[in-house]
């Protein structure tokens, strides 16, 4: 439970307790109705006024729907591919061939995403979504396969950042991410990216150079985590909330600066409270965008992608 959610959780617990006791008691039913109205009002008050750092906390919520939930709900016939053909396998990023559900257009795609895991075992195995160089070399392999077979690339971003250990640098982390960026910039197929949770640093950027970038309302995208920024700039990690405000890392901030195309609304209370609704929202946008880009001439796609990134920052300069 996040600290700012405490009043909401307390109301939910009181309502649940009264439901267990209520039976046919009209008095208790009336009290339940009153508390449910108060709960709805509290949710609207809290979640309509989240600070940037509170949105970061929501983006990190362990119950937020992850890659596997989106994959299972939005695609059929997923066929996972593994390994970078140089060093090994990295469970922090997964991908393969899939087909969108018929209700979303049924297009064959290459689906790639960060995998934070669903429990302690899978989270540790996937390094909490922080990929190593072999993970990003694997991602490049997927980009090249998509180009070879003429399939749209669909990316689901949810990572605190690429793994920052010494071994990662020794194995060429920076080069692996830069190769991914070059491969995406030249991809002759539609590239669609969604930030569904955390979007940290180059680990996210390697999967964000796209024809369309959508962000869930309570996700974030930033060159650095607020805590790390506060440690460097202020020499005080406790000033993370101040750093988050200055970084302009929320979906609304990024939309205002022309970095993302669309802010996708989350259910009241965040995606972790109603994951099916959040997944449906992303799915509807995915089907719409892929259908709109499918059939576009490769040269037009690449030229448009180039122009898109040349324009970033123009609003800030003006």
Automatic annotation (TrEMBL):
Q: Where in the cell is it found?
A: Cytoplasm
**Enzyme class, spelled out:** transferase
Could you name the domain of life of the organism this protein comes from? Answer: Bacteria
Catalysed conversion reaction: N(6)-carboxybiotinyl-L-lysyl-[protein] + acetyl-CoA = N(6)-biotinyl-L-lysyl-[protein] + malonyl-CoA
The leader peptide range reads none
Q: Which GO terms describe its cellular component?
A: acetyl-CoA carboxylase complex
Alphabetically sorted, this entry's keywords are: ATP-binding, Coiled coil, Cytoplasm, Fatty acid biosynthesis, Fatty acid metabolism, Ligase, Lipid biosynthesis, Lipid metabolism, Nucleotide-binding, Transferase
- Cross-referenced Gene3D superfamilies, in alphabetical order? 2-enoyl-CoA Hydratase, Chain A, domain 1
Fetch the InterPro entries from UniProt.
Acetyl_CoA_COase_a_su, ClpP/crotonase-like_dom_sf, COA_CT_C
Q: Which GO terms describe its molecular function?
A: acetyl-CoA carboxylase activity; ATP binding; carboxyl- or carbamoyltransferase activity
Give any single GO term for biological process. Answer: malonyl-CoA biosynthetic process
Instruction: Give the pathway.
Output: Lipid metabolism; malonyl-CoA biosynthesis; malonyl-CoA from acetyl-CoA: step 1/1
Q: Which residues form a coiled coil?
A: 18-45
Where would I find the CoA carboxyltransferase C-terminal domain in this sequence? 34-292
EC numbers for this chain: 2.1.3.15
Q: What does this protein do?
A: Component of the acetyl coenzyme A carboxylase (ACC) complex. First, biotin carboxylase catalyzes the carboxylation of biotin on its carrier protein (BCCP) and then the CO(2) group is transferred by the carboxyltransferase to acetyl-CoA to form malonyl-CoA.
Please state which protein family the record places this protein in: Belongs to the AccA family.
User: What NCBIfam families would the database entry show?
Assistant: accA, AccA_sub, PRK05724.1
**Can you state the subunit structure given in the record?**
Acetyl-CoA carboxylase is a heterohexamer composed of biotin carboxyl carrier protein (AccB), biotin carboxylase (AccC) and two subunits each of ACCase subunit alpha (AccA) and ACCase subunit beta (AccD).
Q: What is this protein called?
A: Acetyl-coenzyme A carboxylase carboxyl transferase subunit alpha
- The protein's organism comes out as Rubrobacter tropicus
Instruction: Tell me the classification of the organism that encodes this protein.
Output: Bacteria, Bacillati, Actinomycetota, Rubrobacteria, Rubrobacterales
- Encoding gene, per UniProt annotation: accA
């Amino acid at each position: 439970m996040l600290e700012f959610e405490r009043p909401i959780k307390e109301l939910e617990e009181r309502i649940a307790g009264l439901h267990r006791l209520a039976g046919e008691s009209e008095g208790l039913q009336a009290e339940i109705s009153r508390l449910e109205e108060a709960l709805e009002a509290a949710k609207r008050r809290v979640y309509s006024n989240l600070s940037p750092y509170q949105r970061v906390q929501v983006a990190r919520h362990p119950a937020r729907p992850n890659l596997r939930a989106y994959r299972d709900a939005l695609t059929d016939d997923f066929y996972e591919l593994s390994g970078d053909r140089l060093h090994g396998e990295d469970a922090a990023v997964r991908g393969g061939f899939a087909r969108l559900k018929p209700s979303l257009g049924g297009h064959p795609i290459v689906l790639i995403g960060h995998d934070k895991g669903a429990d302690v075992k899978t989270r540790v195995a996937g390094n909490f979504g922080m990929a190593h160089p072999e993970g990003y070399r694997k991602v490049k392999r997927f980009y090249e396969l998509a180009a070879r077979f003429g399939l749209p690339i669909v990316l689901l971003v949810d990572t605190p950042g690429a793994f920052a250990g010494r071994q990662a640098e020794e194995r060429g982390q920076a080069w692996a991410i830069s190769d991914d960026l070059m491969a995406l910039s030249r991809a002759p197929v539609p590239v669609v990216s969604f930030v569904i949770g955390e979007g940290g640093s180059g680990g996210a950027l390697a999967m964000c150079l796209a024809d369309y970038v959508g962000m869930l309302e309570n996700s974030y995208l930033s060159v650095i985590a607020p805590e790390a920024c506060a440690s460097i700039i202020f020499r005080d990690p406790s000033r993370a909330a101040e750093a988050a405000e200055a970084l302009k890392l929320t979906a609304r901030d990024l939309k205002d600066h022309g970095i993302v195309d669309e802010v996708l609304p989350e259910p009241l209370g965040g995606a972790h409270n109603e994951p099916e609704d959040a997944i449906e929202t992303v799915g509807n946008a995915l089907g719409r965008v892929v259908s709109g880009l499918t059939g576009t001439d490769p040269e037009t796609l690449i030229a448009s992608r180039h122009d898109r990134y040349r324009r970033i920052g123009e609003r800030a300069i003006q």
